[in-house]
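Dear Dr. V.,

Thank you for agreeing to look over these. As mentioned in my earlier message, I'm a first-year student in the group and I'm still getting used to reading structure tokens, so any feedback on how I've presented them would be very welcome. I ran two proteins. I've put each sequence directly above its structure. The first is here:
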Amino acid sequence: MELGKYSFGVGDRFNHEGVAQLSALIEATVQGIEVTPVWNKSNREHNIVHSEPSGTRMEADFAVKFLGWEGPYFVDADHINLTNVDRFIDFCDFFTLDVAMYIGNSSPEADVAAFKKSCAALGSTVSIPGIEEPIVITDELLESVAGKYLAAIKEAGKIYRHIEEAKGAGKFVTEVSMDEVEAPQTPVDMFFILKMIADEKIPAQTIAPKFTGRFNKGVDYVGDAEQFAKEFEQDVLVIDYAVNKFGLPEDLKLSVHSGSDKFTIYPIMAQVIAKYDKGIH
């Protein structure tokens, strides 16, 4: 399924704001910017307000019909895992696979060995166009990234295949989310995370890393904006390289969670995606 170059997660917590939210995106379209709406709501949010995914689907469908929206739109099973995804299967066509809780979990020795063996083809260094410092691949680095992320991406593979079995391949958009942790993922981490995603044959179209700084809801970005700018640009370049090198979907793009009210970094992100003609979610 095609998500579009620009997509926007709209959180309609009580299923009353769909028309207003879509009206704003229609205004963007009038101004020449096509943005795909993605109505998102997590299992946690459903439990807090005592709602069901069926209500989110009904609200999205109603807004689209009421306003005559003819573009693509999606309903996101936000931050799901294997314990709760079945609640969303029938109503969603976008699934955010949240595997942050598995970061740092140990992996079987055979899985680590297989990952390291698969990286042999990369050679001792990887030079990514646009990034000055090459990635120097050592056994210690591979052990480190496997120890941090391999179990998480293996779990993402399990969740993806569970959804695929129920809905069919190509019938939904997949995002991999790793943002709800304390430590940010560096561009080097991103490189190996994308390698693991490709190895798991997950056709991820968006990826939500933990960026440098704080992304609290409803307030501006807190952190080193210059460092964020450097890492955001390098993440874009790493994704571009990984798409070509690892065979990931061509429309794979960064997803920025809790992106509302982050006025300090909006110009940074806008400049980077314009510079490289990339999309964003």
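The second protein is here, in the same arrangement:
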Amino acid sequence: MTSQHMTDDPLSLGTQYGLGTHRATYKVPTMSQDSVNYIICLIIFTICIIGIGLLVRSHSVSVDFHTSSANLSFFIVFLLGSLALVILVGVLENVYHVIRYGTLGLFLYDDGFIYGTQTSRQAVSWQNVQAVWHKVIVSSGGYVTTSRDVYTINCTDGTKITIGKLYQFKNMVQIGHVIETETARYLFPAALNRYRMGQPVVFGPLTVTREGLSHRSQRLPWTRIKRRRILSNEISESRLVIREPGKRFAWASINLDAPQVEVFWMLVDHMREVSLSGV
């Protein structure tokens, strides 16, 4: 469902779409603290450049430009000018984000969420979500490695919403966890019913069957499953790790690029309890 209304009040929007109590609001900051620091540094560098430039100009009247003192002054001006240019790029980048995503927001409610800009928002009820995909995008630039958590929500009416691709809200992982857990309440019964009918339930590279868990050519019985989720490895990539009790190495370690991860764990936990109880 798409809204064209200009209201920015989360309570009014929640009432309008019947999404229940408002829980949290996430927006693009109009001016981040980093940008304020950038501007302050830019002003300081500009003053320094002007001061040194005037000093070099007055110095050049009585001293040959080819002296080491003059060369050092020009080097300092060049260095400060380069740093000022880098800072200016940072400021312009923030201004670009403010102009392009300034009204982008995410409102979380008890019964769903609203995402989009002030002129075009999409309201989604948890029970109308068909699948939730979590993808971790890792980018490397020089000595710096960054990661972005992107959540794609497929709805029953064919709508697809991607959160985290345009802009990474603060606490993006926590936002995604709320979306996954809330939608899992409605998706789990269908997955459990499919399992009880003897049909395999597929979650990306993992398959749940009556015999246990399958990953590629490996199979692990329900009673031998120990779960763990970590944020590690050399590129800081989120991974879903499944272990056997008493085993040093993981039975499976896969990227969190699978649909309904929370539904998968709910089904696994349920079947482990059933297997251990002997019911």
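From my reading of the second output: The first helix runs from residue 10 to 17. The radius of gyration is 27 Å. Does that match how you would interpret it?

Kind regards,
E.
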